[in-house]
Known about the structure:
By secondary structure, this protein is mainly alpha-helical. The chain has helices at 4-25, 33-43, 53-75, 82-99, 102-122, 133-157, 163-181, 198-212, 215-219, 225-241, 258-270, 272-298, 301-312, 315-320, 327-347, 350-364, 371-384, 389-406. It has one domain (54-180, 195-406). It is built from 18 helices and no strands.
Amino acid sequence: MLPNIGRWIAGGAAAITIGAVTRVSAPAGFWGDAPRAWVADLIDRRDLTTAQPIAAGLVAAAVACVLIAALFIWRAPTRLRPLGLAAACLPLLVLSALAGVLPAVLAIAVLAPATWAAGRLALARLALPGTTMLERILLEAGIGLGLVAFAAFAVGLVGWLNLVTVLCFVVLVGGLNAATLVGRPRNTRVRLAWRLDLGSAVLLASLLVLLQAVVPFVAAPEIMYDAVYYHLTIVHEFVSRGAVVQLPNIFASTFPLVPHLSYSAAALIGGLDAAKYVHPSVGLAGTASVYAVARRVTQDRRGGLLAALLWAATPLVLWESSTAYVDLFSSFFTALGLLCAVLWLDHRRREYAILCGIFAGLGLGVKPNMALVSAPMYVAVFALAVRNRRDIWLWIGSGVVAALVGMP
């Protein structure tokens, strides 16, 4: 390590070098006209004096909702803490209502619990030892999302992709989950026991404030090229035809379709606006998955919240959260696969290796190049964690599962 005087010298040399390179490479007039124009613009702000009360009110209301949410989660009684999350969602509800796309939010409010419920049923017989409540919910949500996509694919192949089919799916999984809860002993029901220290509450409030930056763009009409030209166009064709078909005029219709099938299920309930709302919802689940992975690795809630904050602060993640693209599906399934790998390292249960393969396969169902992300994880497990022949065959089987899930 350099002594303090060495750091000052190195920093000064770097600053001089950057300044010299900038001066040489800058266009003509940069050091004369541009700075003067910038200073004049700072002094003369008459062009920015137009009042924007609605925008200012929205920002103030969003910050207030986030502060209320953080306060509730930090200090409120346990039974009232979920109200904090509801307060954080209030700006999205208000903007969606003003934009006339509230049915899209209602569609997500119906489909998201049904998706989780489907995953809960699929994993009901697995003990999943050592998982926290959040980790289990995320694993169930990921499996449920895959089930929704595969179910939409199956009914779409026979021409039954319609609103009635989706509502029957929602009612079926809701009824089956309700049946599993009837007669369940009260002492086996999971209770919320959140307790944040001040530092964790500040990190959570920062994360929620950051996520509010996406809200106006989620409620706005979709204008991005990829989303309009083929993602939502494919969804529109699937929904209007009631079937999953190849579209010769859209090259992307031959690509993996896990996101598009999920979008189609939402679009049947709330229209194409609901399809757009699916992607930020998956992005939010992905952020929670990053938190879960980091918390398990660091064994510290602050570490998890900081990782989630850094992930959400990535400009590409924020931008993707406001569009009907597909990449946040990839990151969600990748984070869940990594979580399963870490759980296997902790507990050596084959369920986690198989789940890791399922999520790797679902990632392939979003984009085939996700193999470039999954392969290093498998290599790391083989190189660092495999201890015996049983482990070798288990992870080979996990890779086979990934290939089978990704093939359709």
